[in-house]
Specification:
By secondary structure, the chain is α+β, with helices and mostly antiparallel strands. 66% of the residues lie in helices and 7% in strands. It has a five-stranded mixed beta sheet with strand order 1-2-3-4-5, covered by helices on one side. A hairpin with an 8-residue loop joins strand 2 and strand 3. The chain starts with 7 loop residues before the first helix and ends with a strand.
Length: 563
């Protein structure tokens, strides 16, 4: 499809939009710096920033279609959603923020859900505008998605290099003793328009060069498709090794491998399949035998995806839901859905992997919808996590489990978590038996009174008294006539119980050494405990723990590796 030529009016209108964006963002910045607003108004500022970053950005990416009503209605819908979701996320009583200033991690959590959804939806809107229909043909949708992503990456690169040049300019003039240039560069009145105008210029230049973008994509896909056989070989070899271990995983409830490594393997393999398939209208050039062999990879990916999903599910079952585990399950779920879809496409008697043309749009829209729902009360990760940890605290009879669940509410769930903890403290929580509520109330009072999440050290399960005695019998004491008094014995025993795996590693391990030597020049010897395995050249014990004597009591002073 031929792209719209760049005209003076086209450039001026885009620049005007970027200027409006910069002006509004600077006004917000100026208002916050000049006179901090009441806490209730931070929801206003958070919402304004969201709307005036993403709505103009959407319009700039699709500016060739600025005469279409569909574009402006869609931009308005994006703005309305950001107003609602942003207000909820940035207001004081929402699950999004504490009662203090806006926290960076809360903003990042919001953007972590919104940006992927936005990146998915913009290509769908672009394909609709280019084809004139909501159910755009797959080739149009495919090209739209990759053109949009490449445009964003190139625009970010252009803006970054532009800003580096501006900074370099300031430093050059500074070497001549002229500070005014750097003063201007660091002024928000320059920063906001510089960034927005540079980015707007880049999007318009790149967006007017569809042929160039298509050439880059063709070259990129032409290279990546030849990595698919290697990826399929890795998937096959890994799955063949994984399958014998699956019974152990299912029976023990332990993870065979880090689930994120499995998900990365799935994502890379599916990306390479798309590089080979492209719009689905051209032959990848593999040959009949290789295409048949590659059909085996997607069904094997299902096994990998199930393993990753099960591994994360076990952790959620054992430890309850938290926002990071929510997103882990989210990614694992869609990795499994994509794998099942590609496996279905590989088993169909049709042109090679032709079913992917139906799978990609459907699952992408489902993922975008799920991401948007996570920014609403329907599927808010924090709300679901608080409910999960409350249920975990009320149903478990283990003190450790109750302690962990209540600590999450106190220290990791913000104001909503503390509100939920307060309902337990006040005895107003619903759905809990009175006798159980009283026990929970006492524990909740203890957790609510804590200032930090620091916990008392927990002994390792393998650190038994018998293992300690056997380890101590092998200990070499230097000098040999030195004695271990009861206080030092207690300090060493406590250190062993907390760190037996480090102090007494599996064989082959050298005998531990306890050396009495004055390390700080106060004429009182410290006890230097050397443990672990022989390391380095020359080989010697490198892990140390130092105990010192003060007021007749031995305590652990420091520990670490001796490099």
């Amino acid at each position: 499809m031929s792209s719209q030529p760049v005209s003076g009016a086209f450039a001026r209108s885009a620049i005007l939009l970027a200027g409006l964006q910069a002006g509004v963002l600077w006004l917000c910045h100026h208002a916050l710096e000049k006179d901090p607003w009441p806490e209730i108004d931070r929801s206003v500022f958070g919402t304004i920033y969201l709307v005036f970053v993403f709505v103009p950005l959407t319009l700039l990416l699709l500016w060739p279609h600025r005469t279409r009503v569909t574009l402006w209605v869609s931009a308005g819908a994006i703005g309305l959603f950001l107003v609602g979701a942003g207000w909820r996320a940035f207001s004081g009583g929402s699950p999004g923020l504490e009662t203090g200033p806006i926290e960076d991690d809360r903003v990042l959590n919001f953007l972590a859900a919104w940006i992927p959804a936005w990146v998915i939806l913009v290509p769908f809107l672009r394909a609709c505008l280019e084809s004139g229909r909501w159910n755009a043909p797959y080739p149009v949708l495919f090209r739209s998605a990759w053109r949009t992503c490449l445009t964003l990456l190139e625009a970010l690169l252009f803006t970054g290099v532009f800003w580096l040049l501006i900074l370099l300019c300031g430093m050059l003039f500074q070497t001549l003793g002229i500070e005014s240039v750097r003063t201007v560069i660091n002024d928000p009145r320059f920063i906001y328009p510089a960034w927005t105008l540079a980015f707007a210029t880049a999007t318009q230049i790149i967006g007017a060069s569809d042929r160039f973008i298509d050439g880059v994509l063709d070259q990129l896909f032409g290279l990546l498709k030849w990595l698919l056989p290697l990826a399929a070989l890795i998937v096959t070899a890994f799955t063949l090794v994984l399958i014998p271990k699956l019974p152990t995983l299912l029976n023990s409830g332990e993870r065979v491998i880090d689930s994120w490594v499995l998900i990365a393997l799935i994502a890379m393999t599916l990306l390479l399949f798309n590089a080979a398939l492209r719009e689905g209208e051209r032959d990848p050039g593999y040959g009949p035998w290789l295409k048949r062999a590659l059909r085996l990879a997607p069904p094997l990916l299902v096994i990998v995806a199930v393993t990753a999903f099960y591994s994360l599910s076990v952790r959620v079952t054992d430890l309850g839901l938290t926002p990071p585990r929510f997103w882990g399950l989210f990614v694992a779920t869609f990795a499994l859905i994509y794998s099942l879809g590609y496996a279905w496409a590989s088993l169909k008697e049709s042109p090679w992997m032709d079913g992917v043309r139906r799978i990609n749009p459907l699952v992408s829209l489902l993922a975008a919808t799920s991401l948007l729902l996570s920014l609403t009360p329907v599927a808010d990760p924090l709300r679901l996590s608080i409910a999960s940890q409350l249920e975990r605290a009320t149903r478990s009879s283990s003190p450790e489990t109750v302690d962990g669940a209540l600590r999450f509410l106190r220290f990791s769930a913000g104001a909503p978590g503390r509100d939920a903890l307060d309902t337990l403290v006040q005895g107003t929580a619903r759905g809990i038996a009175p006798e159980q509520l009283e026990a929970l109330r006492q524990e909740a009072e203890r957790i609510a009174a804590l200032e930090t999440d620091q916990r008392d050290p927990v002994a390792e399960p393998e650190a038994t008294p018998a293992r300690y005695r056997a380890w101590k019998e092998r200990m070499r004491i230097i000098p040999q006539d030195a004695e271990i008094d009861p206080s030092l014995e207690a300090a060493i025993s406590e250190a062993f119980m907390l760190s037996a795996s480090m102090l007494d590693p599996p064989e082959p391990a050298s005998a531990p050494q306890l050396v009495f030597v004055d390390l700080d020049g106060d004429d009182v010897a410290e006890a230097l405990l050397l443990t672990g395995s022989l390391q380095g050249e020359p080989r010697h014990l490198r892990d140390y723990t130092i105990f010192r004597l003060a007021d007749g009591v031995w305590t652990r002073w420091s520990s670490g590796p001796w490099l």
